[in-house]
Known about the structure:
Elements: H1 4-14, E1 20-27, E2 34-43, E3 52-61, E4 66-73, E5 80-87, E6 97-99, E7 105-113, E8 116-123, E9 128-134, E10 141-151, E11 160-170, E12 183-184, E13 189-201, E14 204-217
Antiparallel strand pairs: 1-10, 1-12, 2-7, 2-11, 3-4, 3-10, 4-5, 5-6, 7-8, 8-9, 11-14, 13-14
Amino acid sequence: MQLAALLISLMALAGRASAVSWYFLRYFPATGQKFTSFSGEMTIPTLQKAGVYYLWPGLQPSDNSGVYQNVLDGRSGTWWIGSGWCCSNPSLPWGSGFNTYAGEKVTFNNRIEGSSWTSTLTRQSTGETVTNSFALTSKSFNQALFAIELYDVSWDFGPLAFSNVVITSEGSSDSSWCNTTPENYNSATTFSISGLSKSVSGNKVTCKIGSVTLQKPA
């Protein structure tokens, strides 16, 4: 279990000692591969109250030095979503973001562009878009996560659904990692995955997943 960077994330973002609950699914690429893009749509759940809710897709590197995330944040009592690297090595400013509301869909697109990773978030109901770049190409991302991170609050917002997910890896033609059985941390989450397909071009694997839903605590 490689949880060090995730623990960095929760402590730095919350900024205080808290009781934390973790629910996440995690994909690892095949040996010799690394993830080179991660995109999809997140359906925004209902926020019951202000609290330290962090819901996110993200990439974690092989050195466990942090997490590159698109974080849906419930601390203000209204959902806000933004992208960033948490939390050091390197120290990078958090990206811009916007408020979003229950039932909306937000598209996330994380990809390598030149010497940086670029994150684009789009609020589909309004077309509002933010794009930020992060100096992270030195990192070898070997974990793709769909995560729920909760501090002193319960999973009271219903299912967390992702759709039209596309994850790419490069390094070999082995596509075995693209499956319907990601790691389910501590078997803590009831989940469903559907609409999976994969393709290979040279040493690049493209994994498409129609739906990934973290349904409820197991």
